[in-house]
Hints:
Blueprint: H1 3-10, E1 17-25, E2 28-35, H2 36-52, E3 60-64, H3 70-83, E4 86-90, H4 97-106, E5 109-115, H5 117-124, H6 127-134, E6 138-141, H7 143-151, E7 157-162, E8 165-169, E9 176-177, E10 183-188, E11 191-196, E12 207-208, E13 214-216, E14 228-230
Parallel strand pairs: 3-4, 3-5, 5-6, 6-7
Antiparallel strand pairs: 1-2, 7-8, 8-9, 9-14, 10-11, 11-12, 13-14
Amino acid sequence: MSRNSIAATMAGRHPSLAGIGQFRRADGMVGFEIGWPEVERDTIWARRLLEAWEVGPGDHALLTARNSEGPWFGPLVRAIRDTGVVFSNAEPYAWDARRVATLLSALPIKVVAGLSGEAADALLADDEAAARLAEVPVLWARGDAVEQLRRAGLQPAEMAMLGPVPAFSCPERKGLHIDPAEWRFTATASGLALTVVGDRLFRGRDIALDINGAIVEAPCTCGLPGPRINTE
C-alpha cells in the first residue's frame, strides 16, 4: 500500500472502496462493492436528473432514507450538495412522519425523495400535511406509496431501488430512468432484469428485478438518454 493510500485509509476514506451495499434476490442477499470513480459518475448522472427537474441552487430538498440506503441515495445527496440545494433528512417510517410534516410546513420544499408507503399514509391522514405534500413539485415516491398518493389526488413521480441501482422518474413521468452508460435493462423469460455495462467493481448480468413493467426504447422527451422501464 502506498503512502497516499495509507493516509487516505487513516483519514476514514478507503483508497478504492466507497461503500458496500446489499440487495435481495430470490435466493438470498447479494453484496456489491462501490468504487470512488463509480460514485463520481453516478453523481454526474444525478446532477443531470436534477437539471431535468429544474432543481437548482437555493431550492430545498427533503430526503427520506434509511442509513443503510446510502449506496443508492449517496450520489443524489452529493449531486444536491454540488448543485447548491439545501437539504434536510428524515426516516422513511410512519413514526417520523411528524418531522416530515414539520419540515414541509416550515420550508419551501421543492423535492421529496424516497417517500415510503407508511410515511405517505401517515401524512395523508393529516389534512394540513397532505395539502403541503400536494404542493411539492418533485415528489419521488417509492412503489408502495405511489397508488395511495394518486388516489389522494397527488401526482407523484416514482423511484425504485432496482438491485444495485436507483431508478427515478423524469418530469414526463413516463418511466424509470437509469444511466445507460452504467446499466442496461434486459427482458428475460422470467421477467425484467438488469445487466452491468459500466466499469464497476460489482459485475452482474441479467440480475432479476422485482418490478413489473415494459422496457421503452424510444427516446424520452425529457432529454435523458437510454431506455427506461414503464410501470404503468
